[in-house]
Amino acid sequence: MRVATNTKRNLITAALLAPAAAWLTVFLVLPFTAMLVFAFGERAPEGGYQAAFTFAQFANLPTRAAAFWNTLLLAPAGALLCLVVAYPVAYFLAVRANPRYRLILVSLVVVPFWTSLLVRTYAWMYILGSRGIPNLLSMIGIEDVRMLNTPGAVLLGIVYGYLPLMIMPIYVSLERLDRRLLEASADLGGKPVSTFFGVTLPLSLPGVMTGVALVTILLLGEYLIPQLLGGGKVFFIGNALVDLFLQSRNWPFGSAIAVTLVAIVVVVLMVAMRIAWKVAGTRQVDLV
Amino acid sequence: MRTFISSVYLFLYAPIALVVLFSFNAGRNASEFTGFSLAWYGKALGNTFLVSALQNSLIIAFTSAGLAAVFGTMAALGMERLSPRMRALFDALFAAAIVVPGVVIGIATLVALVAVFSFVNPTIAALWPGGKPPQLGLGYGSIIAAHGLFSMALVTMIVKARIAGLGRDIVEASGDLYATPLTTFRLIVLPQILPSILAGFLLAFTFSFDDFIIAFFVAGSKTTLPIYVFASIRRGVTPEINAIATLVLVASLLLILTARVLMREKKSKSGE
User: Fold this and answer.
1) What is the rounded CA–CA span in Å between residue A258 and residue A253?
2) Which of A67, A167, A175, B153 is the most exposed place for a label (fewest CB within 10 A)?
3) Coil vs helix vs strand at B105
4) Who's near A32: CB < 8 A, 6+ residues apart?
5) pLDDT band of A166, cuts 50, 70, 90
6) For residues B265 and B56, what is the distance between their CA atoms, to the nearest angstrom?
7) What is the pLDDT of residue A143?
8) Which chain B residues touch A112 with a CB distance below 8 Å?
9) Is the dihedral of CA B264, A285, A28, B231 positive or negative?
10) Which A residues 66-95 touch B at CB under 8 Å?
11) C-alpha–C-alpha distance, residues A157 and A225, integer Å
12) Which pLDDT score is estimated for A226?
């Protein structure tokens, strides 16, 4: 009897999970296996894939070194720049803001993140383009300023696009901060500045870590911002991938780059978790 | 400090405001506002390419989010019943679906589907009794499948969080009162997790509706709204694009606000 009930229970569990398991297998596990196989193959003469076993694609990676450098420099740089802008905002929202308006102010930060990144990035093409700020500057006599299609424009786009994602985890960790610790610090004669650096900042580090890791990982696969604001000059790995798969149809090389990108993401994630572990000690770290 | 905070808010909203403002511009010029007009909205909605791209986006977002809501909820309920090791496996796979960059998800799906097509299509053609054999190809199916993956992970995560906060005693009480498991589910569990399912559906819908990069790889000849907007941007900025962009912004905003209200309701009910 008990065996029969268990069998029935297992059947129901299997039935509940079957669609998701099928989906994960067919559209996640299989595709990644295929991509891994492709990465060791050759480009067919007419484009696409031809079976082979060679490390040539990986040996070829240096030909796309520029994309790797741009990504590996600008993604963390963008994330750090985001942090510099985000921290005061998160601090203000969590510690200083009037509690009556806090929720509204926090929502106002999040809303842009949830709207189309394509549209928001395109707005900057508008502002930085020749009819935007450079046009205004020329009216006051500053001629020929180039803003669009520069690394600076890409960094600006990154900060703009990912700022909300940086503010939120820091805000959450600051909001949970025990106010009594701040009072204790003041009672013990700590000046506001030393309270901030001695108490507030260290206790918000888990949030800072989460934000930096989250934004960096997402930026590693970024395509739209470099494409629209970098104008084909500031290529990221994502742009190289689109080029290789959709234009030059060099699938094995593209697969090798994609596999390398995933490896980089995994390494960054592991390092971030390691550091978070150390920073947070036994404290809980939230990833969102 | 206040000046800094205000300028950050200005920084966040000025570009959006500019796009919205210029969508009402009467003139064609993108740098000066020459008067209020709805003409570009009319033009955008009269554009058959744009309207069909919008239709495609709606069909894809609705289907993938719908599938994700049903299958993702089932998965969340099923994972409850699994051994810790199997549960960790599913957790890892769902996490991978979220962490792996969209660019790679798009590529992997493309690579796998083309490999399957190149095997299946000749087989069908060989076995087809006559006339033109059907051809499998990229299109609605491939975009829905790829969006469904991410969306399912999203729904499962949200619903799982809700289930974790669910009172077990009331479910047991229902069983003690001789309710069948199905009745318990329908009357006790479902009403409590429904807001989170809806929130997951709306988030998934917004994600699919706004996604450019995955669709770019697996769309084949189908054009979604973000793909259309992207292509138009490359042809040059016109007020018509501003009108489309404004519509996209308003649509995703409405969906997100609804989703957040639903998730908040969930929180207050569980007494957090």
Assistant:
1) 9
2) A175
3) helix
4) A262, B108
5) very high
6) 32
7) 74
8) 12-13, 16
9) positive
10) 85, 88-89, 92
11) 6
12) 95
Backbone angles phi, psi at A190, to 5 degrees: -70, 130
For residues B131 and B51, is the Cβ–Cβ distance under 8 A?
no
Model's pTM, two decimal places? 0.87
Instruction: Report yes or no: A112 and A120 within 8 Å, Cβ to Cβ.
Output: yes
Q: What is the mean pLDDT of chain A?
A: 87
Q: Identify which of B4, B18, B71 has the shortest CB distance to residue A23.
A: B71
Pick from A210, A214, A220: nearest CA to A75: A220
Question: Is residue B238 within 8 Å of residue B158, measured between CB atoms?
Answer: no
Contact B216 A246 (CB under 8 A): yes
Question: CA Rg, chain B, in Å?
Answer: 23
The number of helix segments (H) and strand segments (E) in chain B equals 12, 0
Which of A18-27, A241-250, B134-143, B234-243 is least confident?
B234-243
Question: Nearest CA of chain B to the CA of A266: how many Å?
Answer: 9
For A241, the closest of B107, B145, B148 (CB atoms) is B107
User: Residue B81 carries which DSSP code?
Assistant: T
Structure tokens at A183: 């009072």
d(CA B75, CA A177): 35
Record the tokens describing residue B168, joined without a space: 């077990």
For residue B9, list chain A residues with Cβ-Cβ distance below 8 A.
108-109
Three-state secondary structure call for residue A42: strand
Assigned token pair, B247? 């519509």
Tokens standing for residue A12: 């129901």
One-letter identity of residue A158:
I
Residue indicated by tokens 């507030």: A200
Q: How far is B126 from chain A (nearest CA, A)?
A: 23
Phi-psi region of A231 (alpha: psi -120 to 50; beta: other; left: phi over 0): left
Q: Which amino acid is at A200?
A: T
